[in-house]
Amino acid sequence: MFNTSATDSVNTYDAILVGAGIMSSTLSVLLHELDPDLRLLIVERLSSAGLESSSANNNAGTGHAANCELNYTPVQDDGGISTTKAFEINKSFEQSLEFWASLAEEGKLMPKTFLNKLPHISLVFGDKDISLLEKRFAELSSHPAFSQMEYTMDHDELKDWIPLVMDGREKSEKIGATRIKRGTDIDFGSLTRSYINQIEGKESIEVDYSTNVENLQQDIEGNWYLSLEGEKNKKIVRSKFVFLGAGGGALSLLQKSGISEGLSYAGFPVSGKWLICEEEKSTKIHNAKVYGNAAVGAPPMSVPHLDTRWINGKRSLLFGPFAGFSSNFLKYGSKLDLFRSIKPTNFVSMLQAGIDNLDLGKYLLNQLTQTNKDRIETLKTFLPLVSASDWKLSIAGQRVQIIKKTASGGVLKMGTEVVTSSDGSLAVLLGASPGASTAVTIMIEVLNRCWHEKMKSSQWKKRMLELFPSLGIDINSNHEALLAIRKRNDFLLKLI
Ligand SMILES: Cc1cc2nc3c(=O)[nH]c(=O)nc-3n(C[C@H](O)[C@H](O)[C@H](O)COP(=O)(O)OP(=O)(O)OC[C@H]3O[C@@H](n4cnc5c(N)ncnc54)[C@H](O)[C@@H]3O)c2cc1C
User: Could you tell me the distance, in angstroms and rounded to a whole number, from the CA of residue 130 to the centre of ligand 1?
Assistant: First the structure.
């Protein structure tokens, strides 16, 4: 560790944000909007922002709003459909839209550089899944938030919605689908860079690329000291507040921080692969994100989907993800990441989570042994007439699933979790899903937990209301407010 008594001359900031992915960049813009004088330092180990999980090549770019993701409406033991998570995610995504709309209105963000309107479709095959989809449709579409959802089993209508998917199918095949036209595809890498570009160069903002945060330590006065290692030099920086938005690197930094809240956590990496098609004869015809059902044992984010994507403005098709296993916690990380994260405090919970998730183990093993021919066979369930030579395999980002200590051992969690130190001086984002789409809501949570005095001040309250006109209103129970905020967001983000 380093000697904090000899650090009087170190650069001091109001906040240090580790990592330049969608999470840190969202928080840095929020903090800057709330108080432009705050001195912020963003530290990123790679040469630019948004190159890890937030890069458009590494994630699916779905604006997760629970329009089509069947895993957000799980089937309960009594056969009913639970919609709680779907409403929560839908509301949270609207908050992201609201933030982007406000920044766009002020000329700080250009929606067309990262956001495209795209229908979101759920697609299932066979009587059992069709019956569940019908239940989901009935539950969701009766509520204003999902009232625009359409349902069909009609092949002619489906041919209109998803012509490529319907090509070559027998009329007798049982297929059910729902559609919400107001869905989105998002280039989160581009959004991350837009956020950073918007604040970089301001007097109060510093961004250090190609700089790794090696270690961090808190002194008795509550200051955090971070040791940074750049390509040419090493330095120590200081702040009263640190956000670890380091993606897969966050767990290791949380462990190094030594805060007791970090002792309950371990991580399990799941890697991903996509099939990508750039052939215009296909990319021009398919215009939707089409989500299917997950295989038994598959983690929820491994639901197969066929997506229209815009990456750096170029239109393509993506199918996957195919899960895999690599012990890296970051795509550009080290194979030792997983092994280094195993500590006496989390070993038992990892073991327990492993025993409780044997289906996941089997699923990953099966995915690991797949050949490209197998992957094309899976794609054929979506595109019966697929031409294999049009599709190339590409490596996606890493997701580190959270394993959390419980009284009975440990549990594998599929969502994201914000961990904060008891004094609110350190906040850490762990986990993966629904991820980037809900970054704005997650960062507001960080502000409420760690900057609560400031959040109560009239200056911050006023600016929050300018950025989020629906703040404090539950749009899930206030129909008029829901319509008003959607109208504003659609207009300012050109989603009409
Ligand atoms: C296959 C896949 C599909 C996905 N699909 C979707 C989707 O459709 N929709 C959606 O909303 N989300 C999706 N996600 C999730 C989403 O990509 C992530 O939740 C989000 O990008 C995480 O952002 P982040 O800023 O936390 O992490 P990252 O983007 O990974 O950024 C973390 C940054 O921290 C840096 N860093 C790490 N350690 C250090 C260190 N010690 N010092 C300095 N810098 C460090 C890294 O280099 C990196 O740039 C998907 C993810 C994957 C992997």
Answer: 34
